Amino acid sequence: MELELLYEGKAKKVYQSSMNENHLILSYKNDATAFNGEKKAQFTGKGRLNNEISSILFKALEERGIESHFIKQLDSITQMVQKTDIIPLEVVIRNIATGSITKRLAIPEKSPFEPALVELFYKNDELGDPLINDEEAIYLTNLTVENLNEIKEKARSINQVLTEIFATIGVRLIDFKLEFGRNQDGEIILSDEISPDTCRLWDMNTNEKLDKDVFRQGTGDLITVYEEILNRLEEQL
Ligand code: UDP
Fold it and tell me: How far is the CA of 19 from the centre of ligand 1 (A)?
């Protein structure tokens, strides 16, 4: 049966489930984009790798008490999730300085952040996802101060759990981006994906980059490093 396409983003297509009004089907694409869509390429197998990795991580989070929109993996490139209204914020958590913050604030590369930094960006392609403060986030969304604090607390707990999970596979979680949505009961839950597209992952021994930076910077083969992450997760979890 033909599913109704609700939305097509840079990395995923979102379909309405034909079985349940409150469920969506996410289909992971092979497209990779960087620099707000200026750099683009297709990688055969990327959709499968991100779907598998994201499914493993959402399951591992659930086992450790962190709820998300994830319901189940359906096939190699799709998963079933709870329908949420996505809150237009990119919540970035930083354990180690790299990427945009090193340029913006002249912080030396690899400086540790203890406690981790939580930053908010307004999810808006036309504006290039600008960094915003808490008051601007509340103004731009329908969140209360309490809702925003809840999101930041959740992001910190997720960071703790993910840092531990990645440590078991010899990978340091440098930074990552989360998105949250409101489900049909009005609860704020973790949504979107958690994958090497949205995390910076460095090998603990060699500092080799095992994430989308190899594409952003043209320093390695995306599929090879994403496969490395999936293989290690499958062996360990
Ligand atoms: N990130 C993301 N989507 C975005 C922007 C950032 O998933 O649109 C992730 C990125 O992979 C990294 C973290 O958020 O793990 C912090 O990214 P940063 O702000 O340093 O941006 P960049 O240097 O990639 O422009």
Answer: 35
Cα–ligand 1 centroid distance for 130 (angstroms): 12
Which atom of ligand 1 is nearest to 176's Cα?
A: 15
What is the spatial distance between Cα 203 and Cα 35, in angstroms, rounded to a whole number?
24
Nearest-CA residue for atom 5 of ligand 1: 177
> ω into residue 115 within 30 of 0, thus cis?
yes
Residue 61, pLDDT above cutoff 90 = yes
Domains defined along the chain, listed by start: 4-82 (3.30.200.20), 85-221 (3.30.470.20)
**Which of 35, 40, 177, 201 best tests ligand 1's pocket when mutated (most atoms within 8 Å of CB)?**
177
CA–CA gap between residue 136 and residue 132 (Å, rounded) = 6
Read off the DSSP letter of residue 77.
S
pLDDT at 192: 98
Residue closest to 26 by CA, chosen among 37, 11, 43, 41:
11
Has this prediction a pTM greater than 0.70?
yes
Burial 111-148 (b: 16+ CB within 10 A, else e): eeeeebebbbbbbeeeeebeebeeeebeebbebeeebb
